[in-house]
Amino acid sequence: MNDEKTQVRTRFAPSPTGYMHVGGVRTALFTYLIAKHLGGEFLLRIEDTDQSRYVEGATELIFDTLKWIGLDWDNEPVFQTSRKDIYLNYAQKLIAKGLAYADPYTPEEVQKFREADSQNKRAFLYRNYRPANPPKWQIGMPLRFKQTNIKRWDWHDEVMGDLSAGAEVLDDIILIKKDGLPTYNFAHIVDDYKMGITHITRGQEYLPSTPNYLSIYEALEIERPKFVTIPHILAPTGGKKLSKRDGAKSVTDYRDEGILPEAMTNFLAFLGWNDGTEREIFSLDDLIKSFDISRIHNSGARFDEQKLIWLNGQWLRKIDTEELSKRAAIFWGSEAFDAAISDNYRQQVLELVRDRLKTLSDLPMMTAYFFKDPTIDLNLIQNDKKLSKLSQETIANYLQKAILKLNALEDWSAENLQNSLNDLLIELAEKPAVLFSLIRIALSFAPFSPQLNQMMALLGKDTVLARLNKVADAIENN
RNA sequence: GGUCUCGUCGUCUAAUGGUUAGGACUCCAGGUUUUCAUCCUGGCAAUUGCGGGUUCGAGUCCCGCCGAGAUCACCA
To answer: Which domains does chain A have, with CATH numbers?
Structure first.
């Protein structure tokens, strides 16, 4: 039992009310890192007590998202709706102590109280309307906490430091709703206690209600965990917190757009945290080693997609080829799966273009010509800055010379190809910027492509010669 | 309105009370025998929200102000 106490244990506790945006996932990441850095456990609790906001499939989406970025949780996920008896049991304890009572009013009546206070320019507190003789509580009525110790609270937060708030915020908050399910305010306290949670991580929006929670811990006579408040991620413009209303994307959207989970965790970790050095590239394991609660920021940070894209590029270059091939599998265009095309060939194409990728979803657009002959578009040649100065005859001549030269080449290696191309430059007394551009465009008809000799080596002699011939014909018939 | 929190380049951030306030992203320029990208070099960019005070010395400590945000549900 004492071992359980010393074991660090954190929990991520989302509600299944829709997709997950980066704010939620960052909270999950920090929660995970705190536990793992200290050799502890990271638990998952689904807070599904609000049945009206429940969204079908949202729980699975939470699982998928966490798995994708590699945050494996310990034990089975806990669902609050299956723990009704536990909350009711603790509620009864409070009733027995005279610290909870039935709310006899309808929501409409409470609303009247609120409006009266508003007209009198007075802050509404339910406890000012506390019924003198509340009925015996039973399910079907809200159960409220009875604040008996109205005072200023001081407490410590691992991120925000020493905090304090006064009696103005202490109220008789609802513990159990009319439907018999607990509110977050009550359920999370009971659950965190029963689950042995040592560090509560949550967003800044819970700061104002913390004194109410402190009262409940006191009433329940349970030791409170450490509070770790995580600052908001800000919306793209303005200083507001990021929310779904501001068009915050689902994290799975980033996944589908070809962002690597390594880049996402690396990026999210640096929104409000750094290790104090100038190092910026961290894998999840690196983060586990370095993550330190005391270096979490206490101010909000803006989500900058540009930097995410940059980090994605860093990871795209860092991950080993085999692994990257697996990740890339679902991003290739359909042309990459022609019967004649092997896994090995796709992997070589990937290797050639990986430095040029921003995200994996760039793959089809960037590699189509490796898998099928490009559509000839002579405008690309005619409008090219350098090539536009050449006459049709010169271009046709260059292509013919190149075909002859390459046709004679027996060892079709990148190195040999480069030598051969260099020879051709000398023979034609032409600059690489002109000749290589011509060949490059004739082979790809793409705005950009990898280094010419490597591209040719991979395409193979037959394809290269066939494409050059087709372009030469097209120019002569133009 | 009450309460609470926050405030360093456009953005993410660094700086035991002690350098010309450092780094990264973005942007710009140059370099690496074609293009695009990578990579390398350099550049632009913060009178540390404002005003006082303490101190030989303040981004850092204290006070006031301003600004921004959060919250005040039978939502979490």
So the answer is: 77-191 (3.90.800.10), 244-319 (1.10.1160.10), 320-365 (1.10.8), 373-476 (1.10.10.350)
